[in-house]
TrEMBL record:
Membrane topology annotation: Multi-pass membrane protein
Subcellular location: Cell membrane; Cytoplasm
One example GO MF annotation: delayed rectifier potassium channel activity
Protein name per Swiss-Prot or TrEMBL: Voltage-gated potassium channel regulatory subunit KCNG3
SUPFAM superfamilies, sorted: POZ domain, Voltage-gated potassium channels
UniProt entry keywords in alphabetical sequence: Cell membrane, Cytoplasm, Ion channel, Ion transport, Membrane, Potassium, Potassium channel, Potassium transport, Transmembrane, Transmembrane helix, Transport, Voltage-gated channel
Subunit structure: Heterotetramer with KCNB1. Does not form homomultimers.
Length: 429
């Protein structure tokens, strides 16, 4: 810790004091408390807590002391439950203040929180730096430039933050729709006729396709997406974090194939390898389907799906492990019963275990295409067990994933409503 003196620090939460060493604060599980370790001045400290006593090295937080006591039980023992006789939403507000999420609650308390939030339509989100009149007196140098960058960031990242952001989001959606229409139309037989030409004609067609209407539309869409991605990268706070975000990676995957295809067309020319390069170009062009995922920036439903998958990746991995184990067992048994035993009837569809894996997958997911089916009595009995096991295994993690989905939707809905309120204030001003 770079501020204060003494080997230990004291946290005063609503009148209850807790003493910690400086090294403990560095990796403290509560995000707000761990931020004290990096404070360099008293002004930085006051941005984290409500008051500070330099003589006793004591940090005061005007929060619910009993709720913080239960949160400290989670820090020590790893179990977080609601305070008896305390509103679930109030306790959830305390959790968010200290840097916890609903997923840290025990399962029974998560259900209570989801039900309460659904009933009252009250949503909470992490605190953000205040930009009201009370924060004007402590604005650091260069704050005007930072404020302009923050407005630019919100314009490109939050479609409901301002009128300009809504216009920009609408234009981006239109470009995505147009690019998808052109991509779908390019697979029609009338559009694919030039692919059957000779190598020389194909090279001339590839070079001239950029000048056709579809090529012009594609170039305009790519230009818009490229400019949008560059501007968002310039105004981002953390460039490394910007590159690591999944949606930004998808943007790069959707944009780069176009430039690769153009470079391949320029460098191959009428080379004999153009025919093989043409297959690569078609694969690269088909990667434009990733543009559909760009709509996740503008629709809460797709954002909720992505956030749920991010938070429930352990449950998803567990589900895949269940399926893989069951697939290995049932595919080996089905191959043995249908083809491995010399019972006079051999089912050629089950000639190997990898071939039987396909039947296991469509049976466990209750799809049942009918292209493969057991013909022996033991094989049919095994098929029934496989179907029932698939239903049970797929249903086990669904409840937790559903509650996580509800919580993610509440959080994103609240954030959207908060930016909508700022948009209304902009209209009033």
């Amino acid at each position: 810790m770079n501020f204060g003196r003494g080997p230990s620090v004291v946290l005063n939460v609503g009148g209850t004091r807790y003493s910690f060493s400086r090294e403990v604060l560095k990796d403290f599980p509560l995000r707000r408390v761990s931020r004290l370790h990096g404070c360099l001045s008293e002004q930085d400290v006051l941005e984290v807590c409500d008051d500070y006593d330099r003589e006793r090295n004591e940090y005061f937080f005007d929060r619910h002391s009993e709720a913080f006591g239960f949160i400290m039980l989670y820090v020590r023992h790893g179990h977080l439950r609601f305070v008896p006789h305390m509103c679930e939403l109030s306790f959830y507000n305390e959790m968010i203040y200290w840097g916890l999420e609903g997923s840290h609650l025990d399962y029974c308390c998560q259900r209570r929180l989801d039900d309460r939030m659904s009933e009252t339509c009250t949503y909470y989100a992490a605190e953000e730096p205040k930009s009201g009149p009370e924060g004007k007196g402590r604005r650091p140098p260069g704050a005007e430039g930072g404020k302009w960058l923050e407005r630019m960031r919100r314009t490109f990242e939050e479609p409901t933050s301002s009128v300009a952001a809504q216009v920009l989001a609408t234009v981006s959606i239109l470009f995505v729709i147009v690019s998808m229409v052109v991509l779908c139309a390019s697979t029609l037989p009338e559009w694919r006729a030039p692919e059957n030409r000779s190598v020389e004609e194909q090279s001339r067609y590839t070079a001239e396709s950029v000048r056709e209407p579809s090529g012009i539309i594609e170039a305009i869409c790519i230009g818009w997406f490229t400019a949008e991605c560059i501007v968002r990268f310039i105004v981002s706070k953390n460039k490394c974090e910007f590159v690591r975000r999944p949606l930004n990676i998808i943007d790069l995957l959707a944009i780069t194939p176009y430039y690769i295809s153009v470079l391949m067309t320029v460098f191959t020319g009428e080379n004999s390898q153009l025919q093989r390069a043409g297959v690569t170009l078609r694969v690269l062009r088909m990667m434009r389907i990733f543009w559909v995922i760009k709509l996740a920036r503008h629709f809460i439903g797709l954002q909720t799906l992505g956030l749920t998958l991010k938070r429930c990746y352990r449950e998803m991995v567990m589900l895949l492990v269940f399926i893989c184990v069951a697939m290995a067992i049932f595919s080996a048994l089905s191959q043995l019963l249908e083809n491995g035993l010399d019972l006079g009837t051999k089912n050629k569809d089950y000639a190997s275990i990898p071939a039987a894996c396909w039947w296991v997958i469509i049976s466990m997911t209750t799809v049942g295409y009918g292209d493969m089916c057991p013909i022996t009595v033991p094989g049919r009995i095994l098929g029934g067990i496989c179907v029932v096991s698939g239903i049970v295994l797929l249903a086990l993690p669904i409840t937790f994933i559903y509650h996580s989905f509800v919580q993610c939707y509440h959080e994103l809905k609240f954030r959207s409503a908060r930016y909508s309120r700022s948009l209304s204030a902009e209209f009033l001003n």
